[in-house]
Amino acid sequence: MGPLTSAFAFSEWLNLLTAFMIGIGFGFALEQAGFSSSRKLVGMFYGYDTTVLKVFFTAAIFALVGSQILNYIGLLNLNQVYVNEFYVYASIIGGVIMGGGFIMGGYCPGTGLCAMSIGKVDAAVFIAGGLAGAFLFAETFPMIQGIADSGYRGAVRINEIFGISPGLFSFLLITAAIVMFWLAEKAEVRFARPEITNEL
Amino acid sequence: MIRLIKKYGLVMLVFGLVLAAVLFRAFSWSGFRYDASEWAEASKDGHNIVYFADKEKTVENSLTVDMGPAYSTFDGSSGKHIRISPDSILARDNFNLIRKHKGPVILKSSDPAIAARVWMIISQKGIKNVFILRDSADLQK
Amino acid sequence: MRKKVSLFLFLCGLLLAILPLTGHRSFKIRPDNLVNQVLDPQVNYSVDEVAKLIVNGDSAIRLIDLRPRNEFIKAGIPGSINVPYEQFISEDPDIYLNDSKIKVILYGNDDFNSNYALVYCRGLGHDNAFVMDGGLNEWTRTIMESRFTGSRISARENALFEIRARASRIFNEINALPDSLRAVRLTASRFSARKLDGGCE
User: Fold this and answer.
1) Which positions in chain C touch A168 (Cβ < 8 Å)?
2) What's the pTM?
């Protein structure tokens, strides 16, 4: 578990237990925020409920700020944090499929598991579909490998592409996020729908 | 103003803690500069080495720091000469002599390992104009 | 609440924009501790000590060759990995020193780069960094060109020259192999060398 493991030399079981506890916390937070409701999740795309944007983006920005400051102070080594390798075409195609699946199914994988854990049948079917999709990808990988591996750009960070410092990029992202939150609030008023949860 | 503090007091407190941690790190008591790699740059291509044969030509107004272990007699070259043992190189008076010297500082030692180690330590404390005196005969070894 | 969170994040963003953030780190131990550490003779390994570690196949050490790649390809101490000095300093050496149980012994042709790297690693908090005195030049003089010139040899000297001879043999054998076979040969030699170990030391 990142800095904890390296700072305190966690044993394997303690490492896994820490991961388990953090996972419990994450699932608890998702459920508390209402992310097991597919109506709330797809509200992001229809504009009447932008909770997803605000919660996830805020969490991402807190992680960004926290990791940068901890790195500066010396408590975290960002060079040891894994950065996903970027494949342009695979990311675009996967993003389109993921977005389409999200708006049709009403869940993403994490929130789908969250909803399934509270007994929602549609979430269970969604997760089953996701697993089937993963299986299908694995089985057909030799056929699609060409496009999956094309457009390789390496493990790049966005600030490296723009040639600006990580700190400046963080500031710009935070500013953009605050502007987006403000716009999201306007959209919620514009695209408001009556709350029907209690009627269901 | 008081209303503002009451309203945003918690934000100011948390931000203040973050700022304090950052400032503490920036002006750390360790005295080493940020970004160790940048301060080690001169060692990558040998720009921090002065060869004995070139010393007179290239290092006017120099301060030569003789760190032994075998202290050599004064070789008659120009510039100031002082003797400091490596373990007291960071003692306040000694370090101030090095830090405040306007011209190049040349580290001299009969043990090249000592000179290299002291060079890196001094450079990481932000002193830029430091060189190691190397006998060109070393290159033959 | 939203305004407070936004204000806090905005202030943090401003702070981050001002900070000289890079991917690199700074020395984090106290200067006087660092001086004491790097001047302690225990950070030095003589070439004879390194030769003994190689002959015994000690797996608790890692040798890092700081010379340029083209020099390493021609010849290097068996079992060492090549990380040219410029690359070693530019990257984060954590990847080579993150296991505190493994002693990392640095060497170059002479004493300069290895000792710069030693202070660099120790300054970043890695107390498992050490240096081989004299570098490969000293290795060549002491191990590869080792000759006994006396009339009588003591048991201790005999053991020393035997280690040197075996290390020299391993060095020549390994460096004569193509790169792909070097690692395989080393693993096999660890088992056979241990069986022959013995005698007075």
Assistant:
1) 16-17
2) 0.68
What is the per-residue pLDDT across C130-149, written as a single tens digit (0 to 9) for each?
Answer: 999 999 999 999 888 877 67
Asked if residue A190 lies in contact with residue A47, where contact means CB atoms within 8 angstroms, the answer is yes
Q: Please tell me which chains touch B, using 3 or more CB pairs under 8 Å as the contact test.
A: A, C
Model confidence over A140-165: pLDDT tens digits?
Answer: 999 988 888 888 888 888 888 888 88
Our CA-based measurement puts residue B120 at a distance from the nearest CA of chain C, in whole angstroms, of 6
Residue of B11, B15, B18 for testing the chain A interface, max A β-carbons within 10 Å: B18
Among B65, B140, B35, smallest CA distance to C25 is for B35
Residue with tokens 């007091």: B9
ipTM, 2 dp: 0.79
How many angstroms separate the CA of residue A74 from the nearest CA in chain B? 8
More confident residue, C201 or A1: A1
> Which residue, among B100, B62, B102, B59, has the nearest Cα to B82 in the 3D structure?
B62
pLDDT above 80: residue B57:
no
Closest Cα in chain A, distance from residue B56 (Å): 42
Averaged pLDDT for residues B73-88: 75
- Interchain pair C10, A175: CB under 8 A: yes
From chain A, pick out residues whose CB is under 8 angstroms from the CB of B37. none
Cβ(C156)–Cβ(C201) below 8 Å: yes
Query: Which of A 86-145 lie inside 8 A of C, CB atoms?
Result: none
| Residue pLDDT, tens place only, A3-36 | 666 666 678 888 889 889 999 998 898 888 888 8
- Chains with 3+ CB–CB pairs under 8 A to C are A, B
